[in-house]
Hints:
This protein is of the alpha/beta class. Among the domains are: 56-171 and 190-224, 3-Layer(aba) Sandwich (Rossmann fold), CATH 3.40.50; 235-267, no CATH class.
Amino acid sequence: xxxxxxxxxxxxxxxxxxxxxxxxxxxxxxxxxxxxxxxxxxxxxxxxxxxxxxxxxxxxxxxxxxxxxxxxxxxxxxxxxxxxxxxxxxxxxxxxxxxxxxxxxxxxxxxxxxxxxxxxxxxxxxxxxxxxxxxxxxxxxxxxxxxxxxxxxxxxxxxxxxxxxxxxxxxxxxxxxxxxxxxxxxxxxxxxxxxxxxxxxxxxxxxxxxxxxxxxxxxxxxxxxxxxxxxxxxxxxxxxxxxxxxxxxxxxxxxxxxxxxxxxxxxxx
Length: 269
């Protein structure tokens, strides 16, 4: 099987049961380390529900990304322009960003827009070139990554996206939770080298936080958007004191997010 990133050779990594039914082969791109499944013939079954039962982190992820983007956009982009959340699911992120004063629009052909109705792509100004496009937890779903990422970039020259980077050596599906074969929707898995390769082929620069948040952009300076700025000493000191006070006054309980994810995962077996 050829690599969907380079068109070059791959090697068979392992075989895993997908949707608890289909024996599926996973291949690794020899040049970039990108991992792909065989031709995903099971997708119609996998997408009987656009949002999977295992996505317990949906709300938490949207809150986290909102808090990150409301800082990045005014600092690095023109905050008065238009923005697009591509494959935005129920429209939650678009609604959250509009609540914060950013003119975001929603686009998802597979999922009902529940939270950002009247602010879909069709409602955006015609022929607009978006200042920034976001695509969160999208890349791992792409059947033809090179062509589909190219189409996303037609909406704007700056694309911030999330996808987990392959964590070193993989020999079997249980080595990494992100494969989630129980749902059958994750079919493409990226290394830093594979994302750098894609960017070069699409005439973009690539930046990353080294974990899961990335940018493709035509402006080289924007590859540094994830660098954390050092706050003044006085502010850092006050934040630490406030955090200690809040922990002492309002003890936080441990989140059940991961526990719930594992519970659902076990029930899907």
